[in-house]
Design brief:
The structure is a homotetramer of 337-residue chains. Chain A has 337 residues and is α/β, with parallel strands linked by helices. Helix content of chain A is 34%, strand content 18%. Chain A is built from eleven helices and 14 strands. In chain A, helix 6 crosses helix 7 and helix 10 runs parallel beside helix 11. At the A-B interface, helix 2, helix 6 and helix 7 of A face helix 2, helix 6 and helix 7 of B.
């Protein structure tokens, strides 16, 4: 790290900062500029309280040189991580599409949707059993009953299944049933939930928080990896900005950035990003062309009567048509779908 | 609510929307404009899936007329709520200041801080036992041991105590010990935690989420109130914007807006909003002048050696000086401190 | 428009609002709900000061039903506008790529770049003669001398040329020389400049402002069209958000939204959006796949020595390789490049 | 500045960066860490194209150590600047309030307002002669006729006058008439307009741009000062965020930050920040308590019939009452009003 001293810092203050750094085990290298002095400090900063330094007299700023995440970093592991969910591989040559309704409403409807998305080419089935809803008056999900319906849909279709968990107390039961545990955007910094997901041993689909920087998102993945679970799929699902024409703003740049900074696979969620089914095809095509390893798309047999997020759900027929549109895009970026 | 039809909507589509609304128990009032038709619909929209309507053919948009929150609304309860924590009253004539360190580090230091903030005029003591930290490598709090230290500080000083809870599994033990349960910004939409806090029977200090709108913040309070707990203190702690000169941007306008929309008391957290102790006095003065019912301020006996958020902590002497500065401001807005 | 009355509005207040609306030439249709009354008002709102209504006693809100823009709207003109710049057509089947350096630095370098981007398949040459720079100490452009170099590059290559204008006093000289006038992001709400560009008779490339909503962007285009100039090319170039990993956040959703709301062509600027050349290929592919009508890309023969924005410039060889990558993407969305 | 090399940078690459820096006149100080090497470079970076360095092979990042602004910086000039407009002093002990309507509509109404705001204690009169309006169909101002009305109001009341200029071609005529030239938020990065305002010799009221960082705002002031004009009054008027409950979000933290970074006076505009007259008193009190040197407030004799921004205008009587409320706040921060 680099410590920048104020223009008004005295020699004594500079010496004190150097001494403190040496006491903490850092090697120091001061550079005396015309206006300001900066001190290079070599050592492991991870256990340091950086404000101990920044609040010393005469210090203007501390500039970190190393990234705060380690395990998720491509500096540590240069080969891309391929998350294997049975025979489905995320992060490899194949583009993997996850599809299904926002919430599991009843068995018949869910299995019908499962069959249709499988026929269209989806490899993983999504469905919400525990729903985080903005209003306490909205449908909150079928909970354990929903998990049973998911398992049955897996038996019928052979699709892998993923569902969101919103409470540390539910991680165990969810992990017993599903193939992938989803951490939603609102819980991206629910650190206890991240730890439990890490301990569950199941692959984790980690959505980016509404206002999370890419660095914070990777730090959330670091929490999971720190528990020994390295099977993480990152999911860009739109960030909150001033623009209200879409529910959120899909940050498509995050796809090449994640590919540069991390070895983890990254997919996109055009349904939650836009909040409107009619923009889902354009965003899906854009995300694949920009390098995403997959997509998670809401599909509902009858969006008009969905209990949750019907506005952003595709009909099965529209989803099937989109899957056809995506094939030449995947081929253009030398991937398969 | 108002349903806006597209310019291209046919008579049949308009009739179908009217019929569906009537089936759902709404009374309808169409208005035929030169370009667009709008349909007024009178009835209870709370259990309606609005996308059922918005996805009908010919519908352009649905405009809600009623606010989505009820219990927190000043439309429902015009008198301000005064949250009583023993003999401390939040939301009344008195400005209540909560102070203490980010994290509880050890008994001696914590009790020393407690005594100093009490002497300066604080009424409630804050301290973190369970810390939500961005990095898994940072200090995570003393947990149950921290709660014991808090209780001892209360015994010594007579101050009320507040601490943050980050996991549904901890609500019971926290509620047994503290006077106020805090829900932090990162958990503002951890709906299960909100429900558990609601069921705990303890007053809840509900911080605004980093990217939460005022409406979403009130909906989070609605979750708590929906469990029968009406003792909620809202806390503005800064929102995430493009500006990086402060850690977050204190949205001071939220104070008069909350006062207009809701009957709940609202306080400000200048320490987390700015992330830098040197801006805390200006923001504290500003918040009180704008109508806040109180403040929550980080104070640490030795910020340089704090295990958490030292940069934003005031020294006890600076805190005491600030309390003096705030008195004439409080008097200027006809409040007491 | 719809006027929403407060729950506390009296009959007299409702009657007064109706009377005022009728005086202003609106037909009124009140709807009496259980809690609130709303009044539908039919008429031309464009010349109305809406706050005249919103500040009447008892009024809670005014909800516009019609969009504020007319000329740019697809409601008015359903066929897409194809902007013809000589034989280059923007908005048709062909994807048009604009390329060139941020600033024109000298004749030799500029003409060399022009030849290389033409050979790679670009149809229009960009180059800055008047540069809006954040710092007064940065290179401000060659002004009229830059325009002469551009004209010469056009003679040599046959490429069309586009440059930014930043001052109403320069519109005339710029319009005499170039084929397309560019209005930059910082001037998107410089309304006088928009009017002058409208009067110039030249096609206008209108960049989206850093913090402009899509509606404000279309209103800026409306200013130009209101002067009788209908040849406008919209350009998404990234918006300002909290994320700092890229200079701006490319709002890829704006592409399908503009296609829905307006008949005007829309292109993307991946260079300014990301601020880093290495993300330009991914964003270029994503924008074309999402439906953009073209791209504007910074290319510099020697980015290391560029006087402006070298970090975001591609080398000619990288640009040529990108053009090859884009061809199958264009084909996948049934366009040509 | 500090150049951070990639972990993979070779010795040759490090040597090349050092050589290039030395060629450019910098003294270099490499520091070899365990993972990364950083190079300290001492010299004047203002005329350097930093991307020349950042794009050299092996370079990861460049960290500036010096601030990009000079003339506006408190590092250069420690005493606060007091802008004198005749006998009115901005930036001194006195809190200066500027008041008046958004737009000048006619002589009688304007002079009536001028008299009322003077009686309430305002020292400077605002009024728009050239209005930047989002819609081309809105009232655009009386232009030169408006200036004449302003001058007459000054004669009648003795108030100083300030108006916004939106076109370089109007700076001369505006500077001849008014006491202070205003640069609006939408033109904060209209650099030519900044230069003309700098050359005009008149004090300049520089509003912060909707999405301008504090650093960019100071750089805009630097443009004006670079033309030799040091009489600048900064004005915080709200930034664009995701929150829609107010038109913009008043960034009250910017007040103490400007006081720390710059010697220039700073005032607040609660009318444009909130967009709603009812929040103006709370924000006015908050801004003064936080350390603002003054306020600019919209006042209109009949907001209901205002041709522009009536929603955010106070009635003269409300303004007069607010001025009384502000006096004890000013006294509490040891200022006068």
């Amino acid at each position: 790290m680099i410590i920048v001293m104020k223009p008004s810092a005295t020699k004594e203050q500079i010496a004190m900062v150097e001494n403190k750094l040496m006491e903490l085990g850092f090697k120091t290298h001061p550079i005396y500029g015309e206006v300001k002095t900066v001190i290079g400090a070599i050592g492991d900063k991870r256990n340091l309280n950086t404000h101990y330094i920044t609040t010393l007299p005469g210090v203007e700023a501390l500039v970190p040189i190393m990234k705060p995440y380690k395990l998720t970093s491509r500096e540590l592991k240069q080969d891309p991580t391929i998350v294997e969910v049975g025979d489905v591989k995320l992060g490899g040559e194949e583009i993997v599409v996850i599809a299904g309704p926002c919430a599991i409403e009843n068995k018949d409807s869910f299995i019908k949707t499962a069959i249709s998305v499988k026929n269209a080419g989806a490899k993983i089935l999504r469905g919400g059993a525990y729903k985080p809803r903005t209003s306490p008056y909205s449908f909150q999900g079928l909970a354990a009953d929903g998990l049973k319906i998911m398992a049955e849909a897996r038996n019928v279709t052979g699709l892998k299944i993923v569902t969101e968990v919103v409470d540390t107390r539910d991680v165990e039961i969810v992990a017993e049933t599903v193939d992938i545990i989803q951490i939603g955007a609102r819980n991206m910094q629910n650190f206890r939930l991240l730890q439990e997901a890490g301990l569950s041993g199941k692959p984790v689909l980690l959505k980016r928080g509404l206002s999370a920087t890419i660095e914070e998102w990777l730090m959330a993945a670091e929490y999971i990896m720190n528990e020994g679970n390295h099977n993480i799929i990152l999911c860009e699902r739109g960030i909150r900005t001033f623009e209200t024409a879409t529910r959120n703003t899909l940050d498509i740049s995050s796809i090449p950035i994640i590919k540069e900074l991390s070895h983890l696979p990254v997919i996109a969620d055009p349904s939650h990003a836009s909040g409107t089914w009619k923009y889902v095809p354009a965003l899906s095509r854009g995300a694949i062309a920009a390098g995403a390893d997959g997509l998670i798309i809401e599909v509902h047999p009858d969006p008009n009567s969905a209990l949750c997020d019907g506005e952003q759900s595709l009909k099965p027929s529209t989803f099937a048509a989109l899957m056809e549109e995506l094939k030449p895009i995947a081929a253009a970026v030398k991937r398969m779908l």
